[in-house]
Specification:
heterodimer, A: 732 residues, alpha+beta, Beta-Lactamase, 5 domains, 5-stranded antiparallel sheet, 19 helices, 56% helix, 17% strand, rod-shaped, B: 197 residues, 6-stranded antiparallel sheet, 3-stranded antiparallel sheet, globular
């Protein structure tokens, strides 16, 4: 942050740079003026400006390169920058190029207009005129000098110097010298007595003189002094040369000088015409190039500054799109963009709050759902919900417990599909399906079917579900296994009947028996043999029937009274062994016992359990009619997280008819000729009072007997029957 | 992307457009074919009294462009750089004397003459022919360079001479071209020779 404060602002740097560029360009432009002191530095200025252009070009190039890379990476804001820069460049370039083109044209035409044939000719004519004027003067001086030689020819050698002085004064020459043929100075006279050494002609002059005998030429004696040098031959015995130097009048010299200067200047300009155009074009191009490049560079910087908040916005938007609401964009300026950024920040804050609220609501809903699911799962009643086309949506744990089918695994399928996999559930499921399809209101139905544990009775209650608009959106079926409840009701009813019977019937039986015996005792002696025989038989019948009735009533009272009188730990294998010991002596019957290792203990009344075993074994013995095999097995099983001891008793008798299986445990249901039909009812009652269950095992068929049975209809020999008892095991 | 391409292309076109104007048309005429340039043919130091004097012969051959310029009245300035160096093995050579002669040659249209002026001495000589004018510049005789006192025995000395055309003295519009066009590359290389007592 401190570093940022020390740094000069970009705009200041740009201003300084622009100032520098303008100064350089101005200097170069000034240097183009020949007279300027800067002209000596022209080359350097040109070089510096060219270098400046190269540097600017590099800057612009670097910017373009970085922009191209950003574009390639599809960086935020790069496309907008490109568009703005291109627009700026086009806007800046177009007028600049047009101005440049016309300036160049104007420049070239302007320079060309300085030169034309008339001026060219006038210049040459002027020079020629000057030359002609001087030429005329030279010829005149030549003639004059030639005339003077005549006086020298006659002059004696001693007087030559004097004569020369006269001649010089006469002719107006500034210097007069007489040379011998070999070029030796013989006599000399000068207007300036201090000039001891006269001006000597060079070899070139001598060469020309020997060829032409006379020589006349303009001689610039000193740099800006013109003289007419005339040399003529003095025709004496030994040829001599007279050199006379005539000054050109100052006025004429000035004029000639002026003409020459103008001519030379014009010639020079004419020669430099192309170079001049080039140099001006170069300066102009450099000015244009530099200002354009600088403008483009500055455009890059300013556009980058303008785009910065947009870039931040784009990045912020991307962050929001990907679910990050915690990004706070910096507000750099208090302009429209700054306002936009502020609004964006406000928006993200709101979204963040809304999203947090939604998330909380979602968690709440999820908790609620989990709560409901837990409750549903722990309900004893099975609950299955359906959608509009009666496909299963949810099913709870109790549904499995009741149907013994994982209904959960059939979510998204109909009950009829379930039927295909579980044929034994055909009846209840079809009933429920039919009721679902038909019912428009809450319905209730009792459905009975044969489950794996015997006959089961369900109380089903269905509720169609409707949306707020009144459309049907599905249904819920709640069902309860009421088998035990109904059984309990039945048992209670039978118990009451038995108790009443015992009470109402047993009481008159003893007087009946006693009365019959009394009749027999009193009347036997008083009757004849025939009548006595009849009486004997009748009373015997009465007594026997009363005994039978007493037995029957005892059975009823047995059934009616509670069986679980005391509770102790019973070692089942031992108990079974004891009971079997009473039967093993019976010839023709084979017993087979099979026990799990370890303790097989149950809690219960040993007398009742013993009775259960007696009843079942007696039942089996009666079924096999004294010949055959009886198997008893004891196993430890686990059901619903509870340990049970399973007692299974199988015989290889004729088996039980299917239609009897459902009612076999109810009182007065028997297949046998004798018996009250209370044996199995009492067994069931005892087992249930001990918290266990008993059912007919329909799955088991004795090995080797299954093939014999099918053709003989329902009742066939040797299909065998089996009972399974499950009693809660003692856990130590 | 499209924008940056157009941007680059425009700049390139602009720069390419400038190039032919800078390098002038007659660059193709090479220096060697035309045979122009200045060569120091021979140069030597001789002892004259207690001074070393230089005698040198220089061959000036002007390019067509230079002759044209001269004929159009553009004065050409020539610098004859003369240096004596003390040669050192592990250091830069030490310059003992750095002197020179500067000539100006210019054409005078009125007189149809070439005027050579020694800028140092101020001598002016006129020649009706260019070759004669150049000849007058090419011969250097008895140019006093340094005293013998400067010369210490046991050291190695060298003398060098170079003739350059002063391009910065050309008329301004001609200068950029003179730096680019080989026709104006008239300067000689340094001629270096050991100096013995």
């Amino acid at each position: 942050m401190a570093f940022d404060k020390i740094k000069p602002p970009v705009s200041l740097s740009i201003l300084v740079l622009f100032g520098l560029i303008l100064l350089l360009l101005q200097l170069m432009s000034s240097a183009t003026q020949e007279s300027s002191e800067l002209s000596a530095m022209y080359s350097w200025l040109l070089l510096v400006n060219a270098l400046g252009s190269v540097v600017l070009l590099g800057l612009v190039g670097a910017n373009i390169y970085s922009l191209a890379r950003q574009l390639k990476k599809r960086e935020a804001g790069s496309r907008l920058t490109t568009r703005m820069v291109s627009l700026f460049v086009v806007l800046a370039l177009a007028p600049a190029v047009i101005v440049f083109y016309f300036s160049m044209q104007f420049l070239h035409q302007g320079i060309d207009s300085w030169f034309n044939v008339e001026i060219d000719r006038a210049m040459e004519d002027a020079l020629e005129l000057s030359q002609a004027s001087l030429d005329q003067r030279m010829r005149w001086h030549l003639r004059q000098t030639q005339q003077l030689t005549a006086r020298l020819v006659d002059a004696p050698e001693t007087l030559v110097t004097l004569e020369m002085e006269n001649l010089r004064q006469l002719s107006g020459a500034s210097e007069m010298t007489l040379f011998s043929r070999q070029g030796r100075i013989m006599a000399s006279s000068s207007i300036n007595p201090s000039d001891i050494l006269p001006s000597l002609p060079d070899e070139h002059v001598w060469l020309q003189l020997r060829r032409n005998t006379e020589f006349v030429a303009l001689a610039p004696v000193r740099e800006d002094e013109l003289m007419i040098r005339v040399i003529v031959t003095v025709k004496t015995r030994e040829p001599q040369y007279l050199q006379a130097l005539y000054p050109v009048p100052i006025r004429i010299a000035d004029l000639a000088d002026s003409v020459e200067f103008a001519f030379v200047r014009y010639q020079e300009m004419n020669f430099l015409r192309d170079s001049l155009k080039l140099s001006f074009s170069l300066t102009l191009s450099l000015v244009l190039l530099m200002s354009l490049l600088a403008a483009i560079w500055v455009a890059f910087i300013s556009i980058r500054n303008i785009i910065a908040p947009v870039k931040a916005l784009v990045k912020g938007t991307q962050a929001v799109a990907s679910g990050h609401y915690d990004r706070d964009l910096p507000v750099t300026a208090q302009d429209d963009l700054g306002f936009l950024v502020e609004s964006f920040n406000e928006m993200t804050h709101r979204i963040a709050r809304a999203s947090a609220a939604t998330r909380m609501a979602g968690i709440e809903v999820e908790n609620q759902r989990a709560y409901l699911e837990t409750i549903l799962a722990n309900l004893t009643a099975g609950v299955i919900s359906f959608d509009t086309v009666y496909k299963i949506r949810t099913a709870n744990q109790a549904a499995y417990r009741i149907f013994h089918v994982h209904v959960n695994q059939f979510v998204g399928r109909t009950l009829l599909e379930l039927v295909q996999s579980y044929a034994e559930l055909t009846e209840p499921l079809k009933s429920i399906q039919r009721l679902l399809e038909q019912a428009d209101d809450i319905w209730q139905q009792r459905i009975a079917f044969l489950g794996p544990n015997g006959r089961q009775e369900l109380l089903c209650r269905g509720t169609p579900l409707f949306s707020q608009e009144g459309h049907r959106v599905g249904a819920v079926v709640v069902f309860d296994d009421v088998t035990d409840l109904i059984q309990a009701q039945k048992n209670a009813a039978w118990g009451e009947v038995a108790r009443r019977l015992a009470h109402e019937i047993k009481n008159p039986l003893t007087p009946i028996q006693l009365s019959a015996e009394r009749l027999q005792h009193k009347l036997a002696d008083k009757l004849n043999d025939i009548d006595a025989g009849i009486l004997q038989r009748s009373t015997t019948t009465i007594v026997q029937q009363v005994e039978a009735m007493k037995e029957m009533v005892d059975d009823f009272s047995e059934y009616a009274k509670p069986s679980k009188k005391q509770t102790v730990d019973i070692d089942l294998p031992r108990l079974v062994q004891e009971v079997l010991a009473l039967y093993v002596l019976k010839s023709g019957v084979k017993f087979k016992a099979d026990y799990d290792t370890g303790l097989l203990m149950v809690k219960g009344d040993p007398v009742s359990i013993r009775q259960v075993l007696h009843n079942l074994i007696k039942n089996a013995l009666e079924a096999i009619d004294g010949k055959g095999l009886i198997e008893i097995s004891l196993h430890r099983v686990q059901k619903n997280n509870t340990d049970f001891i399973e007692i299974a008793i199988y015989d290889d008798g004729p088996g039980i008819k299917d239609e009897q299986i459902e009612q076999i445990f109810e009182p007065y249901v028997t297949t046998k000729a004798r018996g009250t039909g209370l044996g199995l009812a009492i067994v069931k009652k005892i087992i249930e009072e001990h918290g266990g269950a008993i059912w007919v095992d329909t799955s088991r068929r004795l090995p080797g007997t299954a093939e014999v049975s099918p053709s003989v209809g329902n009742r066939c020999d040797k299909v065998g029957a089996g009972f399974i008892i499950q009693l809660p095991a003692c856990n130590f | 992307m499209h924008a940056s391409v157009s941007n680059k292309t425009l700049l390139c076109c602009f720069l390419i457009g400038l190039l032919p104007t800078i390098s002038h048309a007659d660059t193709s005429v090479s220096k060697s074919v035309e045979g122009f340039g200045v060569v120091v043919k021979n140069a030597e130091f001789t002892l004259q009294g207690d001074s070393y004097v230089l005698s040198a012969d220089i061959d000036y051959r002007l390019s067509t462009r230079a002759k044209e310029a001269l004929k159009s009245g553009v004065p050409l300035y020539w610098d004859i750089h003369i240096k004596t160096l003390q040669q050192r093995d592990y250091f830069w050579n030490k310059t003992l004397v750095n002197t020179g002669i500067r000539y100006r040659i210019q054409y005078h249209a009125l007189l149809n003459m070439y005027r050579v002026r020694n800028e140092g001495a101020g001598d002016v000589t006129n020649f009706s022919k260019l070759s004669a004018a150049l000849d007058s510049m090419s011969t250097i005789r008895a140019f006093r360079v340094m005293d013998t006192a400067t010369y210490a025995s046991g050291e190695r000395y060298a003398a060098s001479i170079k003739v350059t055309l002063d391009r910065d003295a050309l008329p301004l519009p001609l200068r950029p071209i003179a730096y680019v066009n080989p026709q104006w590359y008239l300067s000689s290389d340094w001629t270096l020779w050991p100096l013995t007592k």
